[in-house]
Structures are given as C-alpha cells and as structure tokens.
Amino acid sequence: MSRPAIAIARAIFPQVVERLQSHFDVVTNQQDTLLSGPELAAFARGKAGLLCTGSERIDPALLAACPDLKICANMAVGYNNFDLDAMTAARVLATNTPDVLTETTADFGFALLMAAARRVTESEHFLRAGQWTRWSYDMFAGQDVHGSTLGIIGMGRIGQGIARRGALGFGMRVIYHNRSRLDPALEADCQAQYVSKEELLRTADHVVLVVPYSAASHHTIGAAELAMMKPTAVLVNIARGGIVDDVALAQALRERRIAAAGLDVFEGEPQVHPDLLALSNVVLTPHIASASVPTRLAMANLAADNLIDFLVHGRPRTALNAQALGLA
Ligand code: GLV
Question: Looking at the annotation, which residues are catalytic?
C-alpha cells in the first residue's frame, strides 16, 4: 500500500523528521531555505500533508496550486498565517500546537517584563562597552515588578499563566481585559479581576499583550492607548506583530511617555522598525517566546502527531476547523 506523501517546509528536529519518515514519504527542507509562495506551492504540490511554521502563508494561491493537500500542521499556536476560511473551502484541515508551549511562553513574557522594567539589557550593553567606571545611586534605576499592578490583555491559556506568575510569584494585583470574561472559578484561580481596556491601560503599572492577531486586534495598542498609560509603565508584546503600532510605540518610548517596552514580535518581522532599534528603553528579541529546547521539541512532535493522527488514522487532534469540515 502506498504511503501518504508529506512536505516539511522548514528545518525541524531530525528525530521528528525520522518519526514522520516511518509513516510517510517525506520531502523536507532541512537546509531551511527561505521559500517564496510559489516555491512553497511547488514544494507541497502532490502532497497530502504540509508541516509548516508561522512564517509560511497558507492562502488561496497555495491551496489552488496544491489540490491534493488534506492537512496543514502549523508548528505554532498562533495561526494568522492561515487563511482558515480558504482552507475550509478547500477542505484542508488546519492544526496548531496549543498547550505544549503555554508555560514556556508565559515564562518569557515575564522575562521580557523583568528585563524591560529593570533595564537588564540596556545596563549589560553599558557594561560590555566598558562604560562602567564607578557606581552611582541612580544607575539604571528602573521600575518595580513585585507588588505592582499587572494588566493582561488577552486572557487565554498564556495570559492565565502570566497572571498566576504575577499574583503568586510577585505579589502583583492582576487585572485583565479579554473579548469575554473568564468564568469566576478561573478568575479566582488566576487571582485576576476583569476590567475595561481603558481602565486597564490607565491603572496598570505594566501591560502584557497576549491576544491573537486578527483584523479586529490590529493596533490594539496605538497612539491613543499609549497616551492612557502611566509614564512609568512597561509594555510587553509576546502576541503578534501588528497588535501594537510600532511607530507610535517608538515615539512614546522616545518621548518617555511610557518607561520601557519588551517586544518579541514586530510589524513586518523579521524586519524591525529602525525607530525601535535606535532606542535603549526597549528590549528586543526575535520571536523566541516559545523557544526552550523541550518546548520546541514538543511543538514539533505535536505538529507531527497531527499529521499522523489525521492522515494515518483519520482523526483530527488539535484542529482549528474540524467542526467546519464536519469532522468533529
Ligand atoms: C508563536 O508565536 C506561536 O504562535 O506559537
């Protein structure tokens, strides 16, 4: 019996490639060559499955070029690289990697918050540049994290992980805003209080963004929202580029209208707006919030599980459109 064929769009852990090779005929891009849309389509043409990352766009052009495709397994929890409606119309199952990255990503949200509030990278650059010649009382004095008010916009699994860290580990008062309110038991578990977005922006000492990207969440934080924040506030974005208006943020940071920011995601990444690169009061990381070795391996294995479960056993696992396809 012939085995299904799959394509792996980017380099992933060799042991996961081997796992997939025991079920499928596999073509893989282990050199990690950057593929244009047409190159990706040529690569995936004739395949039943595609393992991809958030960098690959699954859009109508790719779907039209790959009529044999039955599943695209994203190695990411966010899936704004998927045109979900077009995938459903083409009867292609879309899957992502929830849960396995929740705690690691929440850790990183805190790492960025701590680094930005306590000026960790800025002071390290100063030291490495040989500028540390004497101690002074206000050298790199930043903002406190413990005991402050933490505002979380987007209270899914990762937002809840950040809330728990803030409340239980740092004695913070936690407020949150979300499309819908959590049920009271979950609110109590996270020790988080629901408030309007405006109240959150006006009262939080630190604001962490964890909302999924969509047309509705585009520029959740722009000039008007930044103007509501405290001048001592720190803004952290571990959600997606485009949730923050990066130009407006750079201006607010430059004019010290907020104290600092920690950003893991950017509009138009991997390009980063030059205005942000020029500032010392922003910590910049290259979209690595889920990048611990065990978590990246778990994400790759979950993407592989999705391909195996669906193409070999006919069962969707962590699927986004199973219901729309009548499979759940
Ligand atoms: C990373 O950004 C992810 O969505 O998993």
Answer: 240, 269, 287
Question: What is the tens place of the pLDDT at every residue in 192-219?
Answer: 999 999 999 999 999 999 999 999 999 9
d(CA 108, ligand 1 centre) in Å:
12
pTM of the entire structure? 0.96
Work out the average pLDDT over 108-124.
98
Q: Which atom of ligand 1 is nearest to the CA of 265?
A: 2
Omega of the bond leading into 14 within 30 degrees of 0 (cis): no
Number of separate helices (H) and strands (E) present in the chain? 14, 12
Q: Is 290 a pocket residue for ligand 1 (Cβ < 6 Å)?
A: yes
Cα(104)–Cα(101) distance, integer angstroms: 5
Kindly report the protein residue whose alpha carbon is nearest to atom 4 of ligand 1: 78
Give the whole-angstrom CA distance, residue 201 versus residue 248.
16
Residue nearest to atom 3 of ligand 1 (CA): 76
The string of pLDDT tens digits covering residues 139-149 is: 999 999 999 99
Nearest CA to ligand 1 atom 1: 76
Q: Averaged over 157-186, what is the pLDDT? A: 97
Cα 320 to Cα 301: distance, rounded to the nearest angstrom: 18
Percent of the chain clearing pLDDT 70 (strictly above): 100
Secondary-structure class of domain 5-98+293-311 per CATH: alpha beta
Do the two domains 5-98+293-311 and 102-284 of this chain adopt the same fold? Answer: yes
State the fold for domain 102-284: Rossmann fold (3.40.50)
> What's the burial of 61, exposed, middle or buried (CB within 10 Å: 0-12/13-18/19+)?
middle
What are the sequence ranges of the domains in the chain?
5-98+293-311, 102-284
**Tens-digit pLDDT profile for residues 3-27:** 999 999 999 999 999 999 999 999 9
Q: Is 233 in the pocket of ligand 1 (CB under 6 A)?
A: no
State whether the beta carbon of 54 lies less than 6 angstroms from ligand 1: yes
